[in-house]
Design brief:
80 residues, mainly alpha, 3 helices, 48% helix
């Protein structure tokens, strides 16, 4: 992939891109790259990086309860 610099971008576009990036929790670079692909009708390369799935996720109290109750429970029948 190439690295490019875009000059003289309107403040309103930059502000909108920053707000969208913050809303989605991604970088402004990602928002701008997606916008270029959409605007030009270019096919996006297939993404194979799984980094966005790594780390902690908050699935809510039901998930935490499941982890505590069911996944940390030892099934005695499996160990006898």
């Amino acid at each position: 992939m190439k690295q490019v610099t875009i000059r003289r971008v309107d403040d309103a576009c930059v502000a909108k891109a920053k707000a969208e990036a913050k809303r989605r929790g991604v970088s402004m670079n990602e928002v701008l790259r997606e916008s270029l692909h959409r605007g030009l009708g270019a096919e996006r390369p297939r993404q194979t990086n799984l980094d966005k799935y790594a780390g902690d996720s908050d699935f809510g109290p039901e998930w935490d309860k499941f982890l505590e109750k069911d996944l940390k429970r030892i099934d005695e029948e499996l160990w006898t």
